[in-house]
Amino acid sequence: MTISLSAIHIYPVKALSGISLAQAVVTSRGLQNDRRFMVIDADHQFLTQREYPKMATVWVEIENGEVIFSAPDMDSVSFAATPRELPTRTVQVWSSHVRAHTVTPEADQWLSDYLGADVRLVYMPDSAERQISPAYARIGEIVSFADGYPLLIVSEASLADLNMRIVANGGQALLMNRFRPNLVITGCAAFAEDRLGEVVIGEAVFRAVKPCARCQVTTTDQADGVVRGPEPLQTLATFRDSPNGVLFGMNLIPVKLGSVKVGDRVTLVA
Q: What is the DSSP string of 145-183?
């Protein structure tokens, strides 16, 4: 059975909508342009769809070196994809504290108006190095503003298995975007991700480090920002429960950088 890469997704701003790509560059922090921006509150704490499900409906594009935000009933706003070094502040994402640049007052105001809260947009510059949890990382391995690890991989077979169970329980099948993966693979058995040791895709090599414990964000419809719970958490809890929560997908750390593209052969090493 040939396993291949069927989709690539980046999320330039943590918690906002994603972008599907035909190819991407793997950097030490994850895919290029993935989660280098983040929305924070007045206390410099990170914000996600847990607090504001509506964040799912901020559409993000990158064109000609600019990030563009658009949303229902809003004019668009744009700013540099690699902002110049503006004033810095220490921001918090989970237990990590990292220096980040402010972006533009226009972007701050746009997001504040749309979300109905006083928020700010920040950018992680190359000079900022947020360390991965030492329980799973090697010295020097870093991550963007992602929850904990540079990349998340999920197989189409795993989603198909989950959807079969959800439908059998009277629910509706879900799209892959509920789980916000970076890499989607096809051609393997359901939950083959659980048994990964190393993954080779295109020019890049990744180390599988930790199954992903899923949170309430998976209950939010990514098309309209409406919480539709209790699925998928209700069904996942019946067969994917663990001391760390219900599991779906595998976190990866890059060990060899390079490019990946849809259609690349995927080699899974247990």
A: SSSSSSEEEEEHHHHHHHHHHHHHTT-----GGGG--SE
